[in-house]
Amino acid sequence: VKKPFSSIFQRITQKVKGGLKEMLKENKFKEAMNNALESAKAGMIQNVRKFFEEALNIADEIEDTRKRSYFLSRIAGKMAKVGMFEEAVRAAEKIDDARIRSMFLKNIAIDMVKQRKLEEALKLKDKIEPKSWRSEVLSKIVRGLAKEGKFQEALKVAEEIEFAGIYSWAMGIIVKEMAKMRKFEEALGVAEKIKYEWYRSDALREIALEMAKDGNFKDALRVVDNIEYPKLRLELRSDIKEKMKEAGISEKDIIDKDEDK
């Protein structure tokens, strides 16, 4: 039977004041944090808030900056896991080590995205360094916005991504979500802006497949012709022709319809 986290907290309070190393050696910190998470899941959020407030007070008493940064980072991370985002950000901002502070702000922003707190996550972007971490967060925000159908907002955020590979991935996500919602013209326009050939080809693949699902084989084949990777282009053309065969349509039928027009 697990002991309640409040009693564990009382013991770790003494251990922290006596030295963080000793506390960590006995693994009481991790045990207490895990119990706090379980209590949050059980709806005991007020008790959890009290626990974290007391834990932060203890952290403030630690004189060694490295140890204090370690303790604060773990508290901030767990706060984010239970949805205490404002408190988590405040805890993370107290971390002296700039790299650790930025890493945990990144992790908090990602947890925000997972819980659909996209605007809150976006507010943290300027506090996150290096650019690769910031770009990672922005790409996840883009995905969240695209899945909600907020394409203009997603495109605006994507333009802030400073790494071509991550930018291309994020733009590809927008294209795929547009295609799922049958916004084919817009999707094709966004696909043209994708910088990396593979991501661009993969995005066009998704557009062609969604068109084929609607029986729009002519336009699907036209999109396939713009795919730059020969193997992907050939495989996709073969797949679409198979779908056409199942529907009783040949490529000649499509050509004949064009000529009739």
Concise summary:
With 261 residues, the chain is mostly helical.
Quickly list its features:
261 residues; mainly alpha; 16 helices; 77% helix; elongated
Describe the protein in words:
There is one protein chain. The protein is an all-alpha fold. It is built from 16 helices and no strands. The termini are far apart. Residues 12-26 have low confidence and may be disordered.
Strand residue percentage: under 5%
Range of helix content = over 70%
* Straight-line distance between termini: 77 Å
Number of strands: 0
- What letter string, H or E per element, gives the SSE order? HHHHHHHHHHHHHHHH
Judged by helices, strands and strand pairing, the structural class is mainly alpha
Residue-averaged pLDDT: 84
Radius of gyration: 26 Å
Unreliably modeled segments? 12-26
Count of alpha/pi helices: 16
The major sheet is characterized as:
none
- Principal-axis shape equals elongated
Describe the SSE topology.
Blueprint: H1 5-18, H2 20-25, H3 28-41, H4 45-60, H5 65-81, H6 85-93, H7 98-114, H8 118-123, H9 131-147, H10 151-158, H11 164-180, H12 184-191, H13 197-213, H14 217-224, H15 230-246, H16 251-260
Helix pairs in contact: 1-3, 1-4, 3-4, 4-5, 5-6, 5-7, 6-7, 7-9, 9-10, 9-11, 10-11, 11-12, 11-13, 12-13, 13-14, 13-15, 14-15
